[in-house]
Specification:
The complex is a heterodimer of chains A (about 325) and B (about 750). By secondary structure, chain A is of the alpha+beta class. In chain A, about 25% of the residues lie in helices and about 20% in strands. Classes of the chains: A alpha+beta (about 325), B alpha+beta (about 750). The structure holds flavin-adenine dinucleotide (FAD) and iron/sulfur cluster (SF4). The site of iron/sulfur cluster has 14 residues of chain A, from loops.
Chain lengths: ~325, ~750
């Protein structure tokens, strides 16, 4: 861990001002940032501790949506009555992640901005284009069991590890940010990015920009939804693959289906065109399979993660069945529903 | 009297060190802070093989607080001979010497030690030490290494060569049923909760106190003494509390050497703690490949066993394990042979991890046995009973006891095995296939020469002590119980001491011999105190006990009481006062006795277990849940059913990890383990563990060790992964022969 200076502003304007000079990192729960600093992966010259900013609340929006403060913890968000009732998919996805202790410390803004769990990214003795642009990608041709099968590039095959973000993608959330240029609202689909030739950038946040909140639209998927996560042990492991489904079924037909995938790409993976394959269909294995193939078109592995291609398709089919039947995956009963 | 019987041997006394541990009063190696202590931070190497061509530490030295940077270029001299660097448990070879020269032998090898006034400065400076290398071609691909497997010319001390019987090749050629399978086990790391750490206290008089995370204080003491050429009398090693070992602390690891190097160089106190990531740069359970060929008659009687295995080691030491002997010992079969060799790679030397050899070799063998049971169309338990061997089938010797049949019976009953459907894929619940599997576990019932001391004070307080360690297994508690039992004192009056090289001689804690060996020594020391007490009682006015001999009296609640006349008694205090004694001391050494040694040659001594597992596997997705385990153990006399059960539970959990989760993944291009943290090296989490039922079957065995105790630290892991793998086959019809069975291996 390097030496850094430290500031703890108490309003957003100050934080953004502090955040402007280069090599600054905002410190929220610290569950990811501090680990990375200990491993010398992150070497900020300056830490701006944002925990005193007034961004801890969860508020109703006038249009019936909900605003999740960037500093509301993952636990407070998942257990918030309004989230539980109106956005059970989000609650479920958050509870599928990490451990209770971590969720108590982790914040929504931090979760959005957490970095990949690629082994090489974490180990400064190895090559990694994301950590050190131009050094090469250790995972290609290396240990890549947990890596991407969609949207990867020749420079990087890392995945975004978040569970929460997969649900946010299915829910069409909006990320609110504030920077030197003022405020912006970024649709979640445009927030994270694919690695391309510049894998050092996980998302489209400009340097120094601060996430202040995540807005959830007033669209409720309370009956037909699920978050299905498959991992290397039954709890407390990152997703090998995960599927968030938000669906509407009217008179026995699917009128809307949103499918977001975790653990397979550099961002939560959604293909709206593939989702429309299901529109107007009655729920059936065949229809689900068609959608699974459509959304994973072009998926391919890099050796150790080849199995993910078949696994994610099966998981999509199962998740769609769970959502259609109104029997979402429990995050406490480890039996797959 | 009733009270002492309840708390002595056989009672579920709670861990006597439990409160100190959960309240944070137990201090571990890294929790000592002598004055003027320097913090050492290890710089780990980046390549697997080659040479250091230069170390640029200028930037690091510029960090405020940095005092020194130790490298192979400026380190103080240590002993020259290889032999001087060997520890009690080191396998044949040339022991790794940290910062010895410019050679890189494995990835993650320490290449420098930064010493600073604060931990933070040391850690930061460590990132600024620039090491240049000249890399050489390496191999860390186990499959490639196996192609060049070899039998070391010099064997490890405890290595047992498999003995051949009959003519297995001929028998195989004739066998109507034949099964030939190859199994694989991934490298595992021990991952004890406490990272390896040493705090060295540099005393004003030039003596050195070493607070070390080790499983053997005297092993570390001897090692440091010979490696650094310092008289052992000047080095005291303390390890009263150890946050788990599983074998990782059997040999002195490089942290203690580095701490000592720095302390002698600076003549100051030093602390060195490995990071979790660095915990993946030393000892580990070797990777293994095992090929089992079995022949049987149509009725399922085994006629041939060929058991061949290879395990990984480093280029500089030949770590050997007893992998193939277990299968040969456990099954009645007229023709059997084993073949074992090691495969060298450019890694750190592998080493003992909970039930070394057996956890690998017995587990994988039991997976092959299951395949033969299938071929013979027999229930796997019936198959095992059909081929049951009363004697040690490899050595042709009887066991001092073997209640495996009882373990099978009681385990099967508790599990409900009789309801099992013979064919795979026949039991299901909703979308899940249900499978039941069984396996046998086997481990040595070891005894190791151990000394213990006892000291009774005039106020009736007793201290019992030995240099051994309690690695979390309950040794303190067992010592207390044995002393309670022998001298009739309540546990509150007894203090058990361990983890100090000044205490009576003890071997390292490992191999599950602690309870049997330390226990026996404590009993002897207490018996010796009893004799001295009785003698002192003779000085009491009026001789209330007359001429009673030791067999005529009992020791109850601080009194010596006549067996024939309970009214006649003398308190310990009165006896000691009458004899003018302030305290009574004794030190005894348990050797297992002459008769023990003779029967040790003529009889085999083993612990056995029967493990039953239930798994539920999502048919489409391949998600596995281990929903039930019954582990029935035949381990002689159980001193403390509570700590004993905990040992088995821990072993079973680790076995589930071996079956489904644990694997250190190697990047063979870089020659480096990559998932070196606890987020990506998976051990079972709470959700992975469901019902575990532990049964101890009755197995009186006065012969095996002086107390009839066999030890329990390791048997719980042996075979467990086999039972789970066999259950997965029964659920899915799929034989996965490579552990751990991760979800990818269950995809079509
Ligand atoms: C062992 C382990 C297991 C885990 N398992 C899972 C899992 O299964 N699923 C899962 O989804 N997650 C998992 N996590 C990750 C966890 O969810 C994240 O670490 C956590 O959400 C990060 O939140 P934080 O508040 O602690 O962020 P911090 O560590 O404080 O910050 C993370 C990053 O976000 C930036 N940041 C934080 N807040 C803001 C903001 N408001 N605006 C702009 N940038 C910001 C920081 O600068 C930093 O770069 C696991 C973590 C650990 C350590
Ligand atoms: S996959 Fe991406 S993060 Fe991982 S090593 Fe390659 S470049 Fe780095």
């Amino acid at each position: 861990m390097n030496r850094f200076s430290y500031a703890r502003p108490s309003d957003v304007a100050d934080a953004v001002r502090e955040g402007r000079p280069g090599d600054v990192r905002y410190l929220a729960g610290g569950t990811n940032l501090v680990d990375l600093m200990k491993e010398n992966v992150e070497r900020p010259a300056r830490i701006v501790d944002i925990n005193r900013l007034p961004l801890h609340d969860i508020d109703d929006l006038p249009d019936g949506g909900l605003r999740l403060g960037a500093l509301a913890t993952n636990a407070d968000t998942a257990w918030d009555k309004r989230v539980e009732e109106r956005y059970p998919l989000l609650a479920s996805a958050i509870l599928a992640g990490a451990s209770p202790q971590l969720r108590n410390a982790a914040t929504n803004g931090g979760n959005l901005n957490q970095r990949t769990r690629c082994y090489y990214f974490y180990d400064t003795a190895t090559p990694c284009n994301k950590r050190e642009p131009g050094s090469g990608c250790g995972a290609i041709g290396g240990v890549n069991r947990i890596h991407a099968i969609l949207g990867a590039s020749a420079a990087c095959i890392a995945t975004h590890p978040s569970d929460m973000c997969v649900a946010l993608a299915a829910l069409d959330a909006t990320v609110r940010v504030t920077g030197a240029q003022g405020e912006r609202a970024i649709p979640i689909a445009d927030y994270h990015r694919l690695p391309g030739a510049e894998p050092q950038w996980d998302n489209t946040l400009a340097p120094g920009e601060l996430v202040t909140a995540i807005d959830l639209p007033n669209e409720r998927f309370t009956e037909h939804y699920t978050y299905l996560k498959l991992r290397d042990r039954l709890s407390y492991a990152f997703a090998l693959v995960s599927v968030a489904v938000a669906m509407r079924v009217e008179e026995g037909r699917i009128t809307q289906a949103r499918i977001a995938l975790g653990g397979v790409a550099h961002k939560p993976w959604r293909v709206p065109n593939a989702e429309s394959v299901l529109h107007g269909e009655t729920p059936s294995q065949n229809a689900f399979l068609a959608a699974a193939h459509a959304i994973t078109e072009g998926a391919h592995g890099h050796g150790e993660n080849d199995f993910k291609v078949g696994l994610v398709r099966k998981a999509i089919v199962r998740a769609l069945a769970q959502a259609a039947a109104g029997t979402p995956q429990s995050q406490t009963d480890k039996r797959v529903a | 009297m009733a009270t002492t019987a309840r708390i002595g041997i056989g009672s579920p006394l709670s861990r006597v060190d439990g409160i100190a541990k959960v309240t944070g009063q137990a201090r571990y190696a890294a929790e000592h802070k002598p004055k003027d202590m320097l913090y050492g931070f290890i710089v780990s190497g980046a390549i697997a093989k080659g040479r250091i061509t230069g170390i640029d530490d200028r930037k690091a030295r510029g960090v405020p607080g940095v005092v020194e940077i130790v490298t192979h270029e400026n380190r103080p001299r240590t002993a020259w001979l290889d032999r001087s660097h060997q520890d009690q448990l080191g396998p044949p070879g040339s022991t790794f010497r940290p910062l010895y020269d410019d050679k890189i032998l494995f990835s993650g090898q320490p290449v420098a030690l930064v010493l600073a006034d604060t931990f933070e400065a040391a850690r930061h400076a460590a990132t600024l030490v620039n090491v240049a290398y000249e890399a050489e071609a390496h191999n860390t691909d186990f499959d490639k290494a196996v192609a060049e497997r070899y039998m070391p010319s010099k064997k490890r001390d405890n290595y047992i060569a498999p003995k051949k019987r009959g003519d297995p090749e001929k028998a195989l050629a004739k066998a109507p049923l034949k099964v030939e399978s190859q199994f694989h086990l991934a490298v595992e790391h021990h991952n004890p909760m406490e990272m390896h750490a040493t705090t060295i206290e540099w005393m004003d008089d030039g003596s050195i106190t070493v607070h070390d995370k080790t499983q053997g204080s005297q092993n570390t003491q001897a090692y440091l003494s010979s490696a650094f050429g310092i008289s052992a009398s000047k080095i005291r090693v303390l390890n009263p509390y150890i946050g788990g070992g599983f074998g990782s602390g059997l040999r002195p690891q490089y942290h203690v050497y580095l701490a000592m190097l720095a302390a002698t160089m600076m003549e100051r106190s030093v602390r060195v703690v490995m990071t979790r990531q660095q915990m993946f740069t030393h000892v580990h359970r070797p990777a293994a490949e095992q090929r089992v060929t079995l022949g049987a008659e149509m009725d399922g009687r085994l006629t041939a066993i060929v058991n061949e295995a290879t395990t990984s080691t480093s280029r500089y030491e030949d770590n050997m394990e007893n992998v193939v002997t277990w299968g040969l010992m456990n099954y009645a079969c007229p023709n059997a042979s084993g073949d074992y060799a090691v495969a060298a790679m450019d890694t750190a030397t592998s080493g003992d991890m909970r039930a070394p050899g057996a956890a690998t070799g017995m587990t994988l063998f039991e997976m092959a046995i299951d395949e033969m049971a299938e071929a013979a169309r027999l229930d796997p338990l019936a198959f095992r009973l059909l081929n049951y061997s009363e004697d040690d089938a490899m050595n042709g010797t009887p066991f001092t006891s073997k209640a495996l049949r009882e373990a099978f019976a009681e385990g099967a009953e508790a599990f409900g095995w009789a309801e099992r459907k013979a064919e795979p894929r026949q039991m299901r619940e909703g979308r899940e296939l249900v499978g039941w599997g069984v396996a046998t576990g086997m481990w040595d019932a070891l005894f190791s020469k151990t000394s213990a001391g006892a000291k009774l004070s005039a106020n009736g307080d007793l201290e019992v002590s030995s240099a051994g360690s309690d690695i979390g297994t309950g040794t303190y508690t067992v010592m207390t119980q044995i002393a309670t039992d022998t001298l009739g004192l309540s546990p509150e009056r007894i203090t058990a001491r361990l983890g100090d090289s000044d205490l009576p001689t003890s071997p390292v804690e490992g191999g599950s011999w602690g309870a049997a060996s330390t226990g026996a020594a404590v009993q002897m020391a207490c018996q010796s105190i009893a004799a001295k007490l009785l003698k002192a009682a003779g000085k009491v006015d009026g001789k209330p006990l007359g001429s009673a001999g030791i067999d005529d009296v009992e020791f109850v609640d601080g009194h010596i009481v006549s067996k024939t006349n309970p009214a006649a008694s003398v308190s310990f205090t009165d006896a000691m006062r009458a004899a003018g004694l302030n305290s009574i001391e004794a030190e005894e050494t348990a050797t297992g006795g002459i008769s023990g040694m003779i029967s040790q040659m003529r009889k085999s001594r083993n612990t056995h277990s029967a493990i039953f597992a239930e798994v539920k596997v999502d048919e489409e997705l391949g998600v596995v849940r281990v929903t039930r385990i019954v582990c029935a153990v035949a381990a002689g006399r159980i001193i403390n059913p509570k700590t004993a059960r905990s040992q088995i539970l821990g072993g079973v959990v680790m076995g589930i990890g071996m079956a489904l989760h644990e694997e250190t993944m190697m990047d063979t291009k870089l020659g480096r383990f990559m998932n070196h943290n606890l987020a990506e090296y998976h051990v079972p989490a709470n959700a992975d563990i469901d019902a575990i039922d532990v049964i101890f079957v009755d197995e009186p065995d006065p012969e095996v060790t002086p107390l009839g105790v066999k030890g329990l630290g390791e048997i719980g892991i042996v075979g467990t992964a086999g039972a789970v793998a066999n259950a997965i086959w029964h659920a899915t019809g799929k034989r996965v022969r490579s552990l751990p069975i991760t979800i990818d291996k269950l995809q079509d």
